[in-house]
Every structure is written in C-alpha cells, then in structure tokens.
Amino acid sequence: MTSRKHLAAAAVVAVAALGAAAFLYLKTPPPAGAAGSAASQPGSAQNVPPALLDLLAAHRKIIVLLADEQSMSAADKQAASQVGQSLFHENLERLAAIELQLRQMRALPAAQRDAATDAMLAWIESAADLYDADRLAFREVLLSLQKLAAADQTLPAIKLHKRVGEDLAALEDIEKQYDKELKDIFGRFDSRAIVPKRERWDDYVAHLRKLYSREQIMKDYGVIVPYAEPPAAAGDGAASASAAASASASTAAAAPAPGKEIFGNALPPKTVVLTFDDGPHGSYTEEIAAILKQYNVPGVFFQVGRNLGKLDAQGKEIPGKSAATSRQLLDAGHAVGNHSYSHALLSKQSGDQLYGEIAHTDQMLKSVDARRSSLFRFPYGAHNADAWPSWPSWACAR
Questions:
Q1: Rounded to whole angstroms, how far apart are CA atoms 292 and 179?
Q2: What contacts 164, CB < 8 A, 6 or more positions away?
Q3: Which residues have C-beta within 8 Å of that of residue 129, sequence separation ≥ 6?
Q4: Quick count: other Cβ atoms within 10 Å of Cβ 20?
Q5: How far apart are CA 108 and CA 86, in angstroms?
Q6: How many other CB atoms are there within 10 angstroms of residue 319's CB atom?
Q7: 288-302, pLDDT tens digit by residue?
Q8: Rounded CA separation 357/346 (Å)
Q9: How far is CA 199 from CA 4, 195, 206, in A?
Q10: Please, which residues bridge with residue 309 across strands?
Q11: The model's pTM
C-alpha cells in the first residue's frame, strides 16, 4: 500500500472529535492596491483562516509525541499513542468544518472569493516558516478545494483546479521523501505549486520540539493518560497489598462478562480481520470497499452515529448522505458495527449519557438497515464499569 493509500485508509475516520471544531474566518479583502493586501504579501499568515493554523498545530504535536516512540517504555508509548489519536480525531473534525466553509467561500462574490482562495494557497505554497512536512497537514483541504473547483466550469475555476493539482502532486513528492517516518507516525490512526525543499526529517522534528514539548502535550490531554502507580516505600507491604487488592477489584468491576469482549489473539490461527473505524467517510469508505471487492475480502466497518445522520427533537432518525454508503457496505457482504454516536471518551461517561452514545448509534444503524452487526467498539478502547450494563446484548471488539 502506498503512503497515500495508507493515509487514505486512516482518513476514513471522519468523526466527531474531542473539543470544539475550528471554523474558517474569511476576511473581506481590502480594495485592490491597498496597503497590506494579501496580493502584496504572498505567503503571509495574516489572512490565513485560524482553522488551518489549528490543523497545523495538531499535526505537529502528533509528530512530537510519536517521532521517537521506539525509545519509550510500553506504558509511555501507549499513552502517547492515545493522545495522538485524540489529536488526529480533532483534526478530522476541523477538516469537516473547513470543507463546509470552503463551500461557503466558493459562493462569495468572485473578487472576494478569489482573493481569499489565493491568500490561503499562497501561504500553504510559499510561507517561509513552513517545512515540507508541515504542508502534508493540508492534503485534505486541497482535495476538498480541488473537488469544488472541478464542479465550476469558469476559467478562474479551471485555473484553480490546475494550481491545486500541482500542489497535490508536490505533496506526493514530499510524502515519498518521508515515507517511512510518516507511516511510522500516522499509520495507526509548478510555478505556483509547492516546491519541495527536502529537509532532513531529524531537522524538522528538532524544529517542532522547539515549538512543543511532549510533556506539555501529554499534560494538556492528561484526562486520558493512564498514570502509573507510585512505587511503595519500604515497610509499606500491607498498604501495597491493600492498594493492589483495590486495583484488582476495580479492574474486575470494569471487565466485561466472559465472552463479551473479543480480542484478535483469541481468534483461530491464521485468521485476519480487517476493521475500519469512524466512518462512513464521504470519499474513503467507498475507496476502501472497492479495494476489498477487488480481492474478494470482507471487512468490519465500525461507524459513528452522527456520521450516519442525526436525531430530531422527537428522537426520529434523519439519515445523512453517508447512510447510503453504510447500506452499500451491507449489500456487499461487509459487517457494520457500532462505534458510539460522537466518538466520545466513554470511560468518562455514565448513566444516560453513556447509554445514549451506544443506543442512539444503534438507532441510526437500524434506520439504515436492520442487518447491522451486534459488535461494538469503544472509541480509543476506553471504557469503565458502567459500560457493560448499558448495552448487555452487544459484544465488544478490541
């Protein structure tokens, strides 16, 4: 699988993420010839939508977290990967918001639309403070912009489509330079185009570590990082035994009933199960399904409820455009499972809120097709003792 396809498979998880979505802020461009215009400051971040800056910041933080995970302990590696996954999902939520705002931008008067688009692209293409690997954070933004331009047959739109196509080709080249590093980190989760500078990866990571520290990123997401038990002092044998007993009881309370939780290592030898989380995605779910069809291989697609549609004030299902994709997966022989309604951290939820995350998604899945699977996968693999009584008829896939 090429690095592009590798990232495409990860990007199928177009889901609700932790935190609020960032939105594009489109300034009205100043009159032609006015001082400080975007045209006179190519590559300036002054008029760059804040959502793009947030997208870049999260992209960089993921790299800082995971660039040298080989040197981490198993516990630190797991915690860093968990935080990185959360950052990745936040960016997917930002991308969904950016795509909506790009559509709104294309509806602006021509002069305003073209000025805003040019300012954004000029920054992505030529900002002096961006490294090549930084620009990979904007692949999905460029793809969305290219699709919008393709739907417009005017001469400016045709020129825009060509320009964005050249930028995407440059990103392909950049990706090839950092193929191994990008797979290690993200594989879990022209005249106006970008001209790759091919910086050394180590130099790029060193640059990012001047901007962010792993410790601070972990602290910012401390609510989902498992903290290690402090070592027991000498003579505290009784206290240690008591703490261990308490921890054991807590673990037992959070554990599912026998046979409820399915792990890959419990499957028969030489068994491979392909699972895809967080869809359905507007583009990538169908691409993955086409690849599976080519090799006659079934998969399990764990879907997020609000990607399928929404519930109205009376609790009635309103299917979205992705609901048809889910039905097509079932027709093709794939299994469709439950991955919560909003991809929330369910270990921090209880009662009706926890029940709703599971039940509302099941309601959406049933409205699409009653053939949905009884499999459920916790977002991030995180659950607590309240999870199992909330939906006793489900089996949990890890």
A1: 24
A2: 121, 142, 145, 146, 149
A3: 45
A4: 10
A5: 34
A6: 15
A7: 999 999 999 999 999
A8: 8
A9: 20, 12, 12
A10: 319
A11: 0.53
